[in-house]
Amino acid sequence: AAMGLDNGLARTPPMGWLHWERFLCATDCGTDPHRCVSEQLFVEMADVMVAEGWRDAGYEFICIDDCWMAPTRDEDGRLQADSKRFPSGIRKLADYVHSRGLKLGIYSDVGNKTCAGFPGSYNHYDLDAQTFASWGVDLLKFDGCNSGTLELLAEGYRRMSLALNRTGRSIVYSCEWPFYLRPMQQPNYTEIKQYCNQWRNFFDVYDSWSSIKSILDWTALHQDSIVEIAGPGGWNDPDMASIFFLLQLVIGNFGLSWDQAVTQMAMWAIMAAPLFMSNDLRHISPKAKWLLQNKEVISINQDPLGKQGYQVTKDKNFKLWERPLSGRAYAVAVLNQQEIGGPQNFTFSLTLLGNGLACNPVCAVQQVLPASRYWGVYSWVSSLSVKVNPTGTTLLKI
């Protein structure tokens, strides 16, 4: 059977928009139709993604998360959309999204109920995969609530992967498998990558600095077990929303300062994380739009070599990360985790990078974030001094 890696999908980390972190299960369609999770929301977001350059920047998926379903299956046992939220049905919405040059993502759960209590896919894996394929769905985020035992969890993730492949439709498969395993056992990432295109490792990302920081700390702590497995076809998701979307980009919401938003964007690029925004694209500041559509940062995230970055060293409040890129280049992030005071300098030798080979015998240094600036040519024995704001990050390409 063809498995996740062999399905030809997700050659670079998927990019898109999903509703969860920003809109949750909002039901007030009568009083507040612009906030309600409904077909109107997705149609409007798809239009904005085209009109405002998001699609052209690479954000191609528009994803429905939990709460889209009717509370029961139909008489044939098939999942059905909530008729109030999605009066035209999912197939119609998928056709519209496709007509705009975008792809549609949807959500289900490996257990008998989703996290919000709607019908899950347990005992219906083949039927649900066929339903999603018949609707024209392009991505499935498969959550792990209410799955019973760890054996049933693993079996469900495997079975849905095979069921999706049997449909003959190209559907990116986003799993929560390792996140639900981790409290009890170490995930087997080699197996998970056989079945999934991306997988979530950590808690939902929230609109807060503590959430972003805890994800980065967790990733550095576990990098020996997760960095090597990432690559074309399969990616570590720091979190996409509702665990799924690789680190969901909460930029453009309420909880992050500008420096922290820069840190999230820079570090998601270093981590080769799927880039899924959860924000209201109809009301986003020009600065947030500049950051999220930044071509230099996106090209690092989407680098075809597909290697995930890792922490090289830390010193007091500073963390130094690198990511090998194609063409023997490196992306380098200097993160200042101090939350008080002013900008601080961090000085490091270029011999630290790429096992001493990143700048051998010379290299050009380009600053990407927080602003684009050419630093010049350095020799491999040089040191770089980088000034970084509190909770900020300077992203370089070497």
From TrEMBL:
Keyword Lipid metabolism (UniProt): yes
EC number in record: 3.2.1.-
Occurrences of domain Alpha galactosidase A C-terminal (ranges): 306-392
Single biological process term from Gene Ontology: glycoside catabolic process
Subcellular location: Lysosome
Single GO molecular function: alpha-galactosidase activity
Major location category of this protein: other
Protein name, per record: Alpha-galactosidase
Lineage of the organism: Eukaryota, Metazoa, Chordata, Craniata, Vertebrata
Underlying gene: Gla
